[in-house]
Amino acid sequence: KSKSVAITLKAQINGTVALFTPAKSGNNGVEGLAYEMIHQLKDLKLPTPLTYAKQEEISVLKEHFIKIFGPNHVLTEAVEFGFLIHHGDIPQDVREIIEQAIRNSYIRIIICNNTLAEGVNLPIKTIVINSTRRFNGDKLEHIKIRDMKNLVGRAGRAGQETKELIITTNPSDNAM
Question: Which residue from 14, 20, 55, 69 has the fewest beta carbons nearer than 10 Å?
Answer without folding.
Answer: 55
